[in-house]
Design a protein that fits this description.
alpha+beta; nine-stranded antiparallel beta sheet; 9 helices
């Protein structure tokens, strides 16, 4: 992989200085890292400015050279960057290093971004992984942030984006964001206060704007247009699919996606529409939309109940061909009742002829067996401390194609 230094890129730009607005084929696509495409010249945020050359290379970040070094793939996309910072104060003389590693999807959008920070003062490293998801227009709608130093497979934070203004190039100029901490969402207000957290730590909302100029529109900013809200069909169109029980049963959870749909043959768009059109059943349509857009899941917080307990979260997963892959129900149970509740749920399934044998997983315990060709699992955390952090019993049904 060839290493291209920014100084070399600046020299390339100088050769084109005689006519900076002429049509120049882009060799690089550095603006993609900022969710932008086309012959971008500058991107100005409220607190920073980035400048690009006519060949598509990032030249400056706040007037400074952006990287110590950069590597690219054969298509000119950045695959890794390195930067160095000379520390001051108690760490004066030490040099901290910062790395980014990027992967891209088939459309040339950033799929993942691994950030690595080497701290020489404490001889330690910090690793995070960002996963990005996009809508059909190529706009980023969700970013999941993972702490790679932890064993948990759940994201530390999730960012959702909603677009207000997009210019004629298809690049956003104003968007709303919402950041949530999935772990803290499970805590009640008393626990948050006890550990010193505020509601803003759980969920934060805001708006960000930017101005973009382009090389083929010198001195001008591309016109912007309002993003039209999505048109949702009325709930009546889906009424034939919906059969809302007074309370869920194990039979319903085994056979109905989201617990309310009367057949497993319903496709993913219909499930999404049902979830969005029934606020009496589901909470937070924006989250439903984000799950749907990244291609496999329809999931949401629910208002359904089983055995008197709130079914806190329900999810349905599809394979790449759109076939139903699994159902998942997270039932909120008081900590002291979790083992007994799991046994009671297993007995309800046994009454249907599903043996539900005891089983242990790494970090979890519960029961598992087969319902026809499908796997049925009851799972909860082994440790009391983990149960207190996440007081749930999870019922999942996996529709295993390999068992058919």
């Amino acid at each position: 992989m060839k290493v291209i230094h920014i100084l070399c890129l600046a020299a390339c730009v100088a050769l084109a200085a005689g006519n900076p607005y002429r049509a120049i084929a882009q060799s690089y696509h550095d603006a993609v890292l900022e969710d932008a495409k086309g012959p971008v010249k500058t991107i100005k945020y409220e607190n920073r400015t980035l400048e690009y050359g006519p060949d598509g290379a990032l030249l400056t970040f706040e007037g400074e050279k952006p990287f110590t070094s950069v590597e690219r793939n054969a298509q000119g996309y950045i695959t890794s960057t390195t930067d160095q910072t000379r520390l001051q104060g108690a760490a004066e003389g030490l040099i901290a290093k910062e790395f980014h590693r990027y992967t891209y999807d088939k459309q040339g959008r950033v799929a993942t971004d691994v950030w690595i920070y080497e701290d020489p003062m404490f001889d330690s490293e910090i690793w995070t992984l960002d996963k990005h998801y996009y809508d059909q227009k190529g706009l980023r709608v969700k970013t999941e942030v993972y702490d790679m130093d932890k064993t948990s497979t759940d994201p530390e934070t999730i960012w959702y984006y909603e677009y207000v203004r997009v210019d004629e190039r298809g690049n956003w100029t104003e968007r709303n964001y919402r950041m949530v901490d999935p772990g803290l969402q499970e805590w009640d207000s008393d626990m948050l206060e006890a550990f010193g957290y505020t509601q803003e730590d759980v969920e934060k909302r805001g708006t960000e704007t930017r101005t973009i100029t382009y090389y083929d529109t010198p001195g001008e900013v591309a016109p912007v247009r309002e993003v039209q809200p999505e048109v949702t069909r009325p709930a009546e169109e889906y009424s034939r699919y919906i059969d809302v029980p007074e309370e869920l049963t194990v039979e319903i959870m085994l056979e109905r996606p989201l617990g309310v749909v009367n057949t497993r043959e319903v496709d993913r768009p219909t499930l999404l529409a049902i979830a969005k059109s029934r606020p009496d059943l589901f909470i937070d349509p924006a989250e439903v939309q984000a799950h749907y857009l990244f291609g496999t899941d329809v999931g949401c917080h629910s208002k359904l109940r089983y055995d008197g307990y709130l079914v806190k979260y329900v999810s349905v997963r599809f394979d790449k061909e759109g076939r139903l892959k699994s159902n998942y129900f997270a039932i909120q149970v008081p900590v002291e009742q979790i083992p007994a509740f799991a046994e009671r749920l297993a007995n309800a399934l046994r009454a249907m002829g599903i043996p539900m044998k005891p089983k242990k997983w790494e970090g979890n315990k519960g029961f598992q067996d087969y319902h026809g060709p499908h796997t049925v699992s009851i799972m909860y955390d082994k440790k009391k401390s983990d149960q207190q952090f996440y007081p749930h019993v999870n019922l999942s049904i996996t529709y295993d194609e390999h068992l058919l």
